[in-house]
Amino acid sequence: MKILLLDVYPKSPYRISKDQNGAYGTANNYGTGFVSKLLQRLVKSSIDFPSLFTVQVCGELKYQGHDVKFSKELDLNENFDLYILPSSIVCHETEIEYIKLLTKYKKNVIAIGPFVSSNPQSYLDAGAKIIKGEPEMFFHNPINKVIDFEKLPSIIENFQNYSLDELYFPGWETIFENYIPKMKFLGNGPTININASRGCPYSCFHYCVYPLQQGRKLRVKSPKRVLEEMNYFNDKLGVSNFIFRDPVFTLDRNHTIAICEEIINSTKKFNICIEAHLKNIDEELTRTLNKAGVKLIYVGIESGDIGVRSDAKRWSEENSAQIEKVNYLEKNGIKVKCMYIIGLPSDTEATYKKTVKYAQTINSSYAQFSVFTPYPGTPVFTEYKDKIFVKNYEDYTQFQLIFKHENFTPEKIIELLNYSYRQYYTNPKWFIHFIIRKLIKFYGDLYYRLFRIHR
């Protein structure tokens, strides 16, 4: 069967990613200020990769013997038996337009992903059939080796739950035929996404979208299987940069250490990015992560105000412990990207400016300031759906206010976003730290090359 994975996006001056934010997606519109726009351009030119669930579906279809292609553009002159569209909130209206166009020409369309699983109606109305849940589980089932589109129900309820070790490798070879994914903040050369676990039980599921498809129960991939996958794509595609897309890579400490030990004991050298919770981080684990090649960690701070965090059902460590752990990670050669949120339910201009000062105190390698967004499908959405004033889902960028907030207007939010990025990235303390890190990396890389040549 000839199948096209059609991954469409609206035209935009800033980066749009379908893989982040639990695969609902984000659009990095950091604001209107000079520093904000500079960062937008930098990020758009430095980071680009498709959603991991799309690539996993590609791997399953290829293994079943289908002729699969991946494209971000539609050519109606080329015929396919089936078109599969990865869904997202940040490209929603664009996706609907393409589905309507395809069905107009009598094409068979299936929409997949977390967003369509939670919000199916508009995709159904446009003429697509949808798969609820993790689509790669559906296509892995040998019963579905032959896809009879006409016999499929409009909503395909996927009740399969294969172990992560049973799934086939993601179809990155097919993606590389179209373009080379990148994450320049991690290293030069191609970068691909991978996961070692799925699911997250933390209390921030109240507003977080990760559990909507993956669930709240932790499921893990065996450490040997993780290394096998990394080695495979290193050998086949020359990939040394890997982004682990686990909601919290460090959730199961023993599993995390076992993965690191597999990598440390291998003969390969990788550059790795993970997302973690600071409460899972300590000095011993930091040293292990560093030895395994972890170069960058994303951590959610959300707010510098304890009361604001608590009201948003975000459990975090004391601020002093957060500062200590971020500093320790940075001193051990692991860059940290701290993520902050403006406009949490009880946030005010005063508490948010307190957060910006707190971010400057932490002084991590990178900082991201985004806007609290109640997403359809999450528990918090029921509290805000009558306050939402935007009409298009593509406005759910995570960088603009979409609902009537008691303490902020959309204009004030943009003003404070500009303020945040300007204050953080023009701070002399951050700039000095940036130069020092660059020098350390330069001499560290030089030492490694000399040592490797000498050896």
Provide an overview of this structure.
The chain has helices at 34-46, 52-63, 92-104, 114-118, 121-126, 135-140, 172-178, 211-214, 223-237, 253-264, 283-292, 306-311, 319-331, 349-362, 381-384, 410-425, 428-454, and strands at residues 2-6, 16-17, 26-27, 47-48, 67-71, 82-86, 109-112, 129-132, 155-157, 182-183, 191-194, 197-198, 219-220, 241-244, 271-276, 294-302, 335-342, 366-371. It has 17 helices and 18 strands. The mean pLDDT is 92. It is 40% helix and 16% strand. It is of the alpha/beta class and 455 residues long. α3 links the parallel β6 (82-86) and β7 (109-112).
Give the secondary structure arrangement, pairings included.
Blueprint: E1 2-6, E2 16-17, E3 26-27, H1 34-46, E4 47-48, H2 52-63, E5 67-71, E6 82-86, H3 92-104, E7 109-112, H4 114-118, H5 121-126, E8 129-132, H6 135-140, E9 155-157, H7 172-178, E10 182-183, E11 191-194, E12 197-198, H8 211-214, E13 219-220, H9 223-237, E14 241-244, H10 253-264, E15 271-276, H11 283-292, E16 294-302, H12 306-311, H13 319-331, E17 335-342, H14 349-362, E18 366-371, H15 381-384, H16 410-425, H17 428-454
Parallel strand pairs: 1-5, 1-6, 6-7, 7-8, 8-9, 11-14, 14-15, 15-16, 16-17, 17-18
Antiparallel strand pairs: 2-3, 4-10, 12-13
Helix pairs in contact: 9-10, 10-11, 14-16
